[in-house]
Structure formats: C-alpha cells, structure tokens
Amino acid sequence: MSVKKVVRGEGETRQRILKAAIEHFEKASYDDVGLRDIAADVGVDVAYVHRSFGSKEGLFREVLLTAGKAESVSELTVDELPAAFARQLFQREHDADGDIEPLLILVRSLTSRKAGGLVSERLSAELIDPLQAKFGDSDPFRAATIISLLIGLSVMRNLLKLPSVSEADVISSEKLVARAIEGIINSTDTSQAHESGKNVLA
Q1: How far apart are CA 89 and CA 1, in angstroms?
Q2: CA 91 to chain CA centroid, nearest Å
C-alpha cells in the first residue's frame, strides 16, 4: 500500500513540514521526534509548525491521515490483498515517487503513551475495519490477525532487526507471507473458532 508523495501548491510550506514530519516519523518513534528538527529541515521557525498544526500531536495525526491515503484496502480485491500486504512489508526503500510506508510509521510509535491512542485509532480505521467489511465478517478477529502478523514481522524486521527476518531473501519471504495471509483469508470459520477459544479460556 504505497502513498503518493506530498504535493506542492497551495500551502506549500505546510506541505513541506508534513513531508519532513513523515520522513522523521518513519525513522523514529513519536517520543524521539522533535518539532525543532522538523522545522530545521524545512527552514522555518518551530512556532510556524505550531501555528500550522497546533501541536506535535496534531502534526502526528496529520501524518497518519496522509499515510492512510494509501492504496486503501477498499481499492484492492480479496485476491490482491496477500501480495499487496507482503510487498509492502518487505519494501526496502521509497521509490522515485516518494512513496510512504504507513505501517512502519504506525509500528515505530506503538509504545508511545501519547501516540498510542492515535495509532490504535488509525489501525482500526484504515486496516482492520475495512478488512472486516471486505471479508463480510461479523467478528473483526480474522482481519486483526492479518494486521497482527504484519505488525509483528515489521517490528522484528525494522525495529529489532533480527537477522532471520531482516536478512531473509525478499522474494521468497514475500511469497511465504502472502501464502500465510491467504491461509487466514481462506479460514472461513474464524468467528466460530474465536468464540470457541474464548470459551476454553473462560
């Protein structure tokens, strides 16, 4: 799910701030990103950033909204989802169009107390809820399982940098992850299995 680059035009300086913020939040967690660093990249005073977005939280929310304007789940067929998700997970770098890695932005700030609520909100709104609707499920567990798989692998690959994941062959890894997602999608009794699991744990 790639994201189109931030375009210039009306409000060009604001867009440049947003673009710089996206780059920072892709590389570091919410708590480690400073507005002064973003302002310095753009060549504006930090007060201008505050006027444009209200606060760091407001800027981060805008970043998540921009990242959410990706090739959305609703634009993909069920058959296209496994390959698209796997390809995004192992995407190594931005292409010439300045594509954004939305999942990486979410993952890097998952543990932040301030950003956690926003991250959870966007995960549900942009990924889990649309997947549940596409599957026609009454229970979101199947959709949440797919996103959990992607987040877990992204954490191991991009944050922990485990060699077994970060140094794995990209082509074969993409195929394996795509098959795993296909398996989850083709599991039509997930709602019953989820309810059964809850009963066992009760």
Answers
A1: 9
A2: 12
Distance CA(154)–CA(170), nearest Å, equals 13
Check if the beta carbon of residue 68 is closer than 8 Å to that of residue 102.
yes
> 199 lies in a domain?
no
Residue type, 167: E
pLDDT digits (tens, 9 = 90+) for 84-116: 999 988 875 444 344 556 777 888 888 888 898
**pTM, two decimal places:** 0.74
- Inter-residue contact 69 to 35 (CB < 8 Å): no
Same domain? For 169 and 92 the reply is: yes
Domain that holds residue 34: 12-67
Among 127, 129, 149, smallest CA distance to 72 is for 127
